[in-house]
Design goal:
Shape: globular
Radius of gyration: 23 Å
Strand content: under 5%
Order of helices and strands: HHHHHHHHHHHHHHHHEEEHHHHHHHHHHH
Number of strands: 3
Distance between the termini: 25 Å
Largest sheet: 3 strands, mixed
Helix content: 55-70%
Length: 611
Amino acid sequence: MRRPLLACVLFGVVLGCGGPPDPVPPPPPPPAPSAPSSATAPVPKAAEWDPVAYRAAVTSTLEVLFQTMPTWATSVGEHDFDDQWPDLTKKGEDAVAADFVSRAAALRTIAKAAPESADPKDANTDHPKLDALLLADRLDAVAARTRIIKPYERDPSAVLGLVGHGVSSITSHPYAPLHARMNALDTRLSRVPDLLTAARARVSEPTRASLENLALVAGGLAKLLRSDLVRPSAKAVDGDAPLAARLAKHSEEAAKAIDAYAKDVAKAFPVAKAENRSIGKAGLETLMQLFEGVTDSSADVRKMGEAEIARLTAELDALVKESGKPGESRAQFIERLTKTGTVAPGQVLDAYRTANKGVEAWMRTNKFATVPWKDVALEIVESPPHLRGVSFASMNTAGALDAHLSTARFEVNAPDAKTPKAARDALLAFHAKGATENISIHEAIPGHYLQILWQRRSPSTVRKLVWASTFGEGWAHYCEQALLEAGYVGEDKVRGRAFYLRSALQRATRVVVDVGVNDGSLTLEAAAKQLEEHAMLRPEAAKIEARRALLWPANMFSYTYGKLKILALREKVKARDGAKFDLVAFHDRMLALGAVPIRYVGPTALGIAEQ
C-alpha cells in the first residue's frame, strides 16, 4: 500500500527517488496509436490548440493545489509551503471546492482542443489531452469527496492523519539540510493547536470506525511528537539552541493538544453509541469514476471480486491437496504455515530485510522489468503512528519534484511490547515467513518502488504527481502473481505460493468489502467476517481491513480490479504480438506512462483499445 491520507488519496504522494545517474532506457514506442488564488489561467477556445495557454492553465492549477494542500506539496517536493496547514474551516473548504470545480471545467475545455500527443518541449507533456483530463478529474474528485465523504464531519481521526503526514513529510527524507527542515517543522507544529481547534469545530457525526481509529492513533502520534525525531539537539541543528528549544516547546504543545482533542471527541461522542454509515451506491460510483476512471457499476465491480475469490479459492484448494497434510482444510493449511513461519516481535523488520534482499537478487538476474539500480536507496522501518490503525505495510518515498533524492522508506506495522496481545498476534501472523516475500514484491521492487522510480521520470509534471490506485495498486498486486509466473520461487516454493494466494484472496475480498460497506449492503462486522472466512485473516487483522474501507472509500477495490485489467492487457498484447511479445517491454511501456487510471493504459501506452 502506498501511504494515503487526504491529499495522498486525492492526488497520490509521488514517492520516487532522485535524478537518473543510471537512467532507465526509454521503452520501445507502442505499435499504434489556505483559500485558493482567485487568478484563473487563460482558456483557449475549444477549436484551438494553444500550448502556451495550456501550460499556463496547468501551472496555475498546480500552484493552487500546492497552496491549498501544503502537506501534499511537501511530500511531492514543492517546499514553499512546508510551514503551513490547509484551511480546515467549512468556509475555506467550500471555497477550495468551488474553485476546483471551476478549474476542472476550464481544463475540460482545453482537453477538447488538445492533441493526443505533443512534443514535451511545447507543453511540458507528451500527452496533453490525457493530462488535462486527469487533472480535471482529480479537481472534481476533491470537491466530490468533501461533499460525499464529509471527512471532517465524520472522521475525527482524519486531522491526526494530516498532522502525522505533515510531520513525516518533513522528517522522512533529507530534501534540505536538517536545520531548514526543522525550522519549517517548528512553525508547522506551532500551528497544530489551532488546526485541531478548526477540526474539532467540524466534528458532528463521527462514525464508529473513525472513533476506533482515533483511539488507535492519537496516543502514538502524541508519542511521536515527544520523540527525538522532532526534538533534535542544538548540535544537530547547527548549534541553533533557540530553534531546538522552540521545537521542544511547540512539539509538546502539539502533543498535549492531540491528547486533549482525542479525549474531548471521545467524551462528546462515545464509541459505544456511534454507528457506521455508508456513502451510498451513487457516492461510491462517483468516487470510483473521478479518482480511478471506472465506468463499471459498483455491482459489476463486486461481481468481479466475487469471481476472483472463487478462482483463487480453487487454486488454494488444489495447493492444499498437493502439499497439505491429509484432511487439512485451507484454513488449517494457512494456519500451520503461519505458525511455523512466525518470527519474534523484535525480528519482523529483519525478516523483511532478508526477504527484500532475496527479491532484489532475483530481479537483478532475471528479465522482468528495467530497474535503475543506482537510484535504489531503500530503508525498512516501522510504520508511523498515524497509520497503525489502517495499514500493515506501506511505501513512503521522496517527492517527485525533489529530483536530487533517491530515498524510500518501506514502512512495516511491526508490533512492540505495548501492542495488545490480540493485535500483536494478528500482526505477527500477517508478517510470517513467505508472506514477507510477497509483501516485499508488492511494496518495493518490482512493485510500488519501481513504479514510482519510473513515474518520476515522466516528461509530464501532471503525471509525476497524479497517482491512480487502479494502476499503482493494480501494478503492485499484479507483480505478486507475475513474478511467480516468471519463475521466482523464494525461500520455500509452497510457502511462497500459499501466502501469495492468501494475499490475493485478501485483495479480492477487499473488492466485496469496499463496495459492500460503502453501498450499505454490508456492515463493518459482516465485512470483517468475510475477510476472516475468505482471506483467513485473524479477527484483529480483519477489523483493520474493514475499518479502512469505511475511512477510505473507493480505494480497496483497486488492487484486484487493476491487476485483472493488467492481466487482460497482457493477453491482448500477447495475442497481437505473437512470438515477438516481450514481457520487459510490455512492463516498461506501462510504467513509463505513470500511475494513470488503468482505462488509459491500453490506448495510450500499448496501442490497445480502451477496456
